[in-house]
Structure formats: C-alpha cells, structure tokens
From TrEMBL:
It comes from Dactylosporangium fulvum. PANTHER family: ABC TRANSPORTER, ATP-BINDING PROTEIN (PTHR43335). This is ATP-binding cassette domain-containing protein. InterPro entries: AAA+_ATPase, ABC_transporter-like_ATP-bd, ABC_transporter-like_CS, P-loop_NTPase. GO terms for molecular function: ATP binding. Belongs to the ABC transporter superfamily. The lineage of its organism: Bacteria, Bacillati, Actinomycetota, Actinomycetes, Micromonosporales. Keywords: ATP-binding, Nucleotide-binding, Transport.
C-alpha cells in the first residue's frame, strides 16, 4: 500500500477578524485510527477542507502521502473522504452516485457493487438518495470514501445520524481499515463514539493542537494520583487523610476521592487510625474525563449552569 500519511504542518487561517486555525500541526499515520477531537468551532472541519484543497490556508501546508491533494491524479485513489453526507444529487440513486464517482477515477461497476455491499446499502442502492435517512447518507458517503481502495481515509463526524447498531458497525469497519495499514483520521466531538476505537487522539481548541498523544497516555495523565476509597466512616477517614496532606472529596455516600497520596500511603493512614475500608483502587479516568480536562479552557460556547427552578 502506498504512503498513507496525512500531514498537517503549521496551518493558519483567518476569516475576517476570526482566527480559525492558529498553527495547526499533526500527523495521521498508517495503521492507526487517529481521533481528531475538539469543541465546536475548534477548527476541525476547516483543517479537513484545507487538506482536500477546498479551502486555502494563509500559511502552512497539508500533504497526503507527501503531496498536496490538488496535485494528485485520481485523488480518490490516495485519500477517501467524507465531509458532508448531504453533498449528493437527490434525484440520483445511491448506486448511480457511486458509478459517477467510479467513472471519474477509472473504476468499474464491480467495485461499486462491492462497496455498496460493504456498507450495507444493497436494498436501498437503486432508490433516489434524496429519500435516504441521515444514517443511510452517511453509509453512502463511506462507500464513496472507500470506493477507490485508498491508503488513507478522512471522515468528518461520520457517526452523525447512526443508530447504536450503526455506531458499533462503523467502529469495527474503521478498526479493520487501520488494521489493513491505512491511515484513518476521524473527527468527532463525542468521546463515546471513539471509545475503544481510536489508538491516538489529536485534541484541538481555538485553532491549535492542545494534545497529540496515544489514548492510553491521555487517560493515564488524566487519572493522575487519585485513589478511590470505600469506607464505613467517611467523615473521620476524610479528616485523617486531609491531615496527612491529601485532597479529599466525597464521590458518593461512602466513597472518597483522594488526591495527593499513593494507594499504599492511604492504606497506612487509615490502618493507623483504625478506620475501616472495604475497597481501595487507583482512579482510572474515562476518555471523556481526559478530553474535558484538556478542553476546559477552549470551549467557545458554554451554557449557563442549571439549578433548581425558583
């Protein structure tokens, strides 16, 4: 398989007084699902449109296999992309939409039928695409992205409109594509969609990269030195641990979240004080916790806190 690397280097883009991208830099490499995540307005879609040559950067560069997308002959053979599932002729059938794309890339009808079956659209392929649900349009867009069997795939919010079965199916499909050596770049703002699928995350906010790391390392960093303790004496246990230098919060009626002491130190403090505990374990953050910690200062639109009605 040819070089599948998607490289973004120092992209900058302004729209009037608004800075959309402020030095965006990352790489999506072969054999890995890279999640491209961040709040709304973080610059994900703008970056993807620049990669495809649909927008022009004010500075920096975006390359597919070492070359600008616009310079590629038969570009769908290098990078398959889904940015907008509604970008199709509504009167054209799903199959004819794919046949039109196939002809532009020198591909035959057999390949069209293969990808229709791959995405589960056989029964709907001869119906006008304008009558498709959003989930079906996403599947058609995926078929188009896979059509030329490219070494790299880039998808913008592909889970939108998918039912739970469709989300599970899509996760498996993308994992399989990466397992075959492709670079897979998937944008999302919901960590639940990427959970168990992404190997690596590029977290962005306000047009720049906040974190570029493996999922495992991000979760480990977010987990920190916190310990969860279940105790029948939460108040005296919290007091003893605080005196020993820990930061203690009440996670539940009988559960304390302890920060600043290692697990063995927590055990020593509770044992010395004769304080009971039935469970003690290092805290393991979720991917969503890690993401929220990283993007807390980069959210552009934030709702007011809700409280009881007056």
């Amino acid at each position: 398989m040819s070089d599948a690397t998607i490289e973004v280097d120092g992209l900058r883009k302004r729209y009037g007084s608004t800075t959309a991208l402020d030095g965006m830099t990352f790489t999506a490499v072969p054999g890995r699902v890279t999640g491209f995540v961040g709040p709304n307005g973080a610059g994900k879609s703008t970056t993807m449109r620049i990669i495809l040559g649909l927008h022009t950067a004010d500075a920096g560069r975006a390359l597919v296999g070492g070359r600008p997308y616009r310079s590629l002959r038969c570009p769908l053979r290098h990078l398959g992309a889904l940015l907008d599932a509604s970008a199709l002729h509504p009167a054209r059938t799903g199959r004819n939409h794919l046949l039109w794309l196939a002809q532009s890339q020198g591909l035959g009808r057999r390949r069209v039928d293969e990808v229709i079956e791959q995405v589960g659209l056989v029964s709907a392929s001869r119906r006008p695409a304008g009558g498709y649900s959003l989930g079906m349009r996403q599947r058609l867009g995926l078929a188009a992205a896979l059509l030329a069997d490219p070494p790299a795939i880039m998808l913008d919010e592909p889970f939108n409109g998918m039912d739970p079965e469709g989300i599970v199916w899509l996760r498996g499909l993308l994992r399989a594509q990466a397992g075959q050596g492709r670079a897979v770049l998937v944008s999302s703002h919901l960590m639940s969609e990427l959970q168990g699928m992404a190997d690596h995350l590029v977290v962005v906010g306000r047009g720049r990269v906040i974190a570029d790391s493996s999922v495992a390392d991000l979760i480990a960093a977010a987990s920190g030195d916190r310990v969860r303790v279940r105790t029948g004496a939460p108040q005296p246990a919290a007091a003893a641990l605080s005196t020993a230098g820990a930061q203690v919060t009440r996670a539940d009626a009988d559960v304390l979240a302890v920060r600043g002491l290692a697990a063995e130190q927590v055990v020593a403090v509770l044992t010395a004080g004769g304080l009971p505990f039935s469970e003690l374990a290092p805290h393991r953050a979720t991917l969503e916790e890690a993401y929220l910690d990283l993007t807390r200062e980069a959210v552009e639109y934030r709702a007011a806190a809700t409280g009881p009605a007056s």
